[in-house]
Task: inverse folding
């Protein structure tokens, strides 16, 4: 098999949550540029629509805004997908949020908001889209679910973001459990555990904080769009045909060599 066929996503139908900025935008761009039909969802309808319009110059990209912290919005997004498509080849569960606070002062709102979006939506959106994923799956070409965890679900992070770290550890293990029980349906579930990439979420660290994180990694840098594009294309293509239940750190070695 030629390498361009091995890593091809051409003709695949992809849904990316949290797809309007940050890692979601990087992955959406990679899939669109390589011939996939991509739906992006995000809470901010204007930003979501603007990116879809920009990416449509390169290929096919459609905005389906939704606030996935709410069950009714999960249901609405799933219904819209079923109305538009007869199958779904790749679901990227990327939507997420964080919350920082000291142990004594950490609020319930900061726990529930993060857990609802980072964990609950991953499970229930996949559940609501299972028929479309099954329709896109064959024994020769499995459908894919790619959950976006974090290295902060692998290591003990240096910041007090209790619900975020717990949620990402949950995503990593939820990935393994989903992989076990969805594999008989020819759906491969894997997780990417990103390190630090320049984004709105990491902007709170400031330039100095981000540089300190970069210096702590063996590769002495933060992630680039190509870094997340490469692994997301791999997990959506034939190249990862025997990969199931994996949690792949993409962090320059930060979590795995500390």
Result:
């Amino acid at each position: 098999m030629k390498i361009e066929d091995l890593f091809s996503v051409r003709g695949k139908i992809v849904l990316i949550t949290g797809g309007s900025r940050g890692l979601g935008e990087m992955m959406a761009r990679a899939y669109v540029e390589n011939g996939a039909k991509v739906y992006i969802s995000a809470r901010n309808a204007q930003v979501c629509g603007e990116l879809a319009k920009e990416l449509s110059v390169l290929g096919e990209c459609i905005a389906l805004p939704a606030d996935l912290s709410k069950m009714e919005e999960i249901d609405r997004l799933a219904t819209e997908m079923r109305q538009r498509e007869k199958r779904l080849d790749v679901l990227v569960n990327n939507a997420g949020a964080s919350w920082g606070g000291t142990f004594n002062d950490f609020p319930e709102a900061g726990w529930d908001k993060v857990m609802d979006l980072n964990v609950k939506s991953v499970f229930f959106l996949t559940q609501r889209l299972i028929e479309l994923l099954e329709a896109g799956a064959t024994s020769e070409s499995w459908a894919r679910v790619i959950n976006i965890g974090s290295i902060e679900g692998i290591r003990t992070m240096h910041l007090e973001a209790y619900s975020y770290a717990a949620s990402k550890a949950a995503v990593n293990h939820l990935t393994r459990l989903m992989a076990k029980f969805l594999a008989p349906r020819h759906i491969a579930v894997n997780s990417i555990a990103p390190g630090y990439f320049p984004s709105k979420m990491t902007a709170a660290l400031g330039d100095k904080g981000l540089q300190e994180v970069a210096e702590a990694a063996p590769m002495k840098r933060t992630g680039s769009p190509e870094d997340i594009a490469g692994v997301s294309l791999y997990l959506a293509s034939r190249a990862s045909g025997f990969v199931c239940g994996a949690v792949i750190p993409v962090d320059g070695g930060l979590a795995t060599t500390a």
User: Anything to note?
Assistant: The chain has a mean pLDDT of 93. The chain has one domain: 3-250.
